[in-house]
TrEMBL record:
It comes from Starmerella bacillaris. The chain crosses the membrane at residues 172-188, 195-213, 225-244, 265-287, 325-345. It is a multi-pass membrane protein. CDD domains: PT_UbiA_Cox10. The keyword Metal-binding does not apply. One of its GO terms (biological process) is heme A biosynthetic process. GO terms for cellular component: mitochondrial membrane. It is found in: Mitochondrion membrane. Keywords: Heme biosynthesis, Membrane, Mitochondrion, Transferase, Transit peptide, Transmembrane, Transmembrane helix. This is Protoheme IX farnesyltransferase, mitochondrial. Belongs to the UbiA prenyltransferase family.
Amino acid sequence: MQRPLYSGIKIFNSSKGWLNVRFVSSVKEKQVVVEELPAWTKPLSCRPDPKLARRRREPNNSFRNSLSAYYELGKPKLTALVVLSAMSSYALAPAGGSLAELAFLTAGTTMCSAAANSINQGREPEFDRQMARTRTRPVASYRLTSKDAYTYAAIIGSAGVATLWYGTNGVVAALGAANIYLYGITYTSMKRTSIANTWVGAVVGAIPPLMGWATCSSLMAPQPWILAGMLYSWQFPHFMSLSYTIGEEYKRAGYQMAGWTNPQLASRVSLRHALAMFPLCFAAAYFGITDAYFTIDSSLLNGWLAWAAYKFWQQQRKNGSKNYARILFLVSVIHLPGILVLAMLHKKGQWDWVSSMF
């Protein structure tokens, strides 16, 4: 029997020291066995994308492409959802109604959200390149550098906080600054250390409704916290289903997400918070944010979300399939804008003029 042939290389990690990577080749069986490495020691990509490599060697400096890259740096779809939650909260507040105030809130929130997203991308390009959903981001695809992202975040973040301070008030400006720090620093740092990052991210998502309400009304009341609770709970079925669906990508990149570290927890949390949307919407009507009819309309959407979350939980327990996780994610994308639009349509007292005509 022939002896295996050994060859190896060493990889240095700042926290672990030198690691031996051993490749074992059996001449007789003509097989090669490569010892598995921990996620944090794996190469960035086994097969580099030639397009990304070309961009790294030959960066495109055209003004139009640079403008597009900075636009993408702010994650426009996510920012639009953040701004919608702030605007809808302002519209639901009893003292809201100034177009100038709304314009300052919208502009300031947009810039603060874009700044937070820019910091996030500037800190994670080497990990973003390992995931299909993030490898085309501006810094990950070498269209911008991390320094570009930080510079842009500093400029637009400062402008956003100043806009909120000037056009709304100090409370809103402080909340905007806190969101930049929580998302860009705290949440981004925790993504590679603990699954608790999702809970911190949910707090980040719950702050914009508080900003919208605080623009014209006091936060010393239950109403703004009910709206914040809606945004907080919604994020769990939305993100847990996503992290479960692409769990292998998160694992390869070294992100600690419940979707792959503890799938059962991910499905339970999704179902729990999907069901929490019912009492939160009932509370919105009870405390006078909306009229009573909102409980009927919202229950239809909440029932749809709860059904998808239940099927995700049930399927995950049985066979670990990802079919209903994908469905839950798509339902959640429709659910939140639907709930916010319905709440604005059912704002308390908004349709009193109709009854006064009869």
